[in-house]
Design brief:
This protein is of the alpha+beta class and about 130 residues long. The chain contains 1 helix and 10 strands; from the N terminus they run H-E-E-E-E-E-E-E-E-E-E. It has a single domain, classed as Lipocalin, CATH 2.40.128. The longest helix is centred in the N-terminal third of the chain and has 23 residues.
């Protein structure tokens, strides 16, 4: 009798756990920035993660820098859907904030980088982004 119940119990547990596993799987979604570049995010349960984006920065020496960023850590999404984070690399800083709704993820980000041996400071204004869910 135990041998007949064990496979049934395993099957029942697997069927119950399948929808939970499907909801917990991260989803990659894409959108656009106000500068016209694509932005890619990964949605986790209760968090989001910037994956990749490009941006134009203005430098103090008058030049422009086109930056391609990737490799971000997860950012916690609060219960009301808002998020806010600042992440720092060796020469750059990325600050972003926004809100997750049922239809989209909207926010803005600001970038700073140091360019070359002189470490010329390059910054962006607040860049808006929208990613449809």
């Amino acid at each position: 009798m135990f041998l007949k119940l064990a496979p049934s119990a395993i099957l029942a547990c697997a069927l119950l756990a399948a929808p939970l596993a499907a909801e917990a799987a991260p989803r990659v979604i894409e959108g656009k920035t106000s500068q016209g570049y694509r932005i890619k995010l990964r949605m986790h349960t209760g968090a989001l993660q910037l994956l990749r984006f490009k941006a134009d920065l203005d430098c103090r020496d008058g030049s422009q820098l086109q930056l391609q960023e990737s490799g971000f850590l997860k950012t916690t999404v609060r219960r009301d859907g808002r998020f806010r984070d600042a992440q720092f690399g060796r020469t750059d800083a990325v600050r972003f904030r926004g809100r997750v709704t049922a239809k989209a993820i909207r926010g803005r980000m600001r970038l700073e980088d140091r360019l070359g041996k002189e470490r010329v400071r390059c910054t962006s204004r607040w860049i808006r982004f929208t990613v449809r869910r």
